[in-house]
């Protein structure tokens, strides 16, 4: 569904992504992990066509992202920080987006209900708390029933109840055959929903493994422990066990 071949993105002489190759398929929940500045957001933005890499190819459902923009209609994106017309209400933002997507006539409003956003949909975006803004971003990501979801730090700022609701939704959609890419530093949040882990460091791909492989090779049950150890000791941790 997403094929990345030899992707390199430079800012001047600095390599934000260095020769990354990977493939992601439907039904997977891929957690993109790595220290601050390792290239996770750059990779996500490259897939979204928001960052243009110098070399390499990204294909989404067979479409080269540099040549064909139509693939974007099938992606739901939850950004790290959602930016909206600040004087519009939640209801107006949702209505505006629906009007922009006339090709879609069936909406996924489950999260709007689960987060009880109807009760506050008259509030303007500028008046919302950080967590409520995150909830709106999550609702919008799922609204048009995309087959591919890209979520940058989705649980950051959410309270534990909202975080659980979102994780359940992600697991449900994964089971419905969607592909979900997630970046997060709250690895404990991802433990139950991650099927694959892609680990980046200094713009390079250190490993891309199934969660099961990672657990088996380290002897640790909980992914957050595995990843915390790798972050502290480097990837050698895994090979020394
Ligand atoms: N527009 C830009 N100009 C110059 N350097 C950039 C630009 N965007 C990103 N970088 C650099 O590229 C590297 C990768 O950044 P990126 O945001 O992809 O990291 P990240 O893994 O998502 O980090 P974090 O965990 O902090 O969100 C960083 O060193 C960053 O400073």
UniProtKB/TrEMBL annotation:
Chain segments annotated as transmembrane: none
Pfam families, A to Z: ABC_tran
First and last residue of the signal peptide: none
Alphabetically ordered keywords of this record: ATP-binding, Nucleotide-binding, Transport
UniProt-recorded Gene Ontology molecular function terms: ATP binding; ATP hydrolysis activity
InterPro entries, A to Z: AAA+_ATPase (IPR003593), ABC_transporter-like_ATP-bd (IPR003439), ABC_Transporter_VariousFunc (IPR051782), P-loop_NTPase (IPR027417)
Protein name: ABC transporter ATP-binding protein
Residue ranges annotated for the ABC transporter domain, each copy included: 2-227
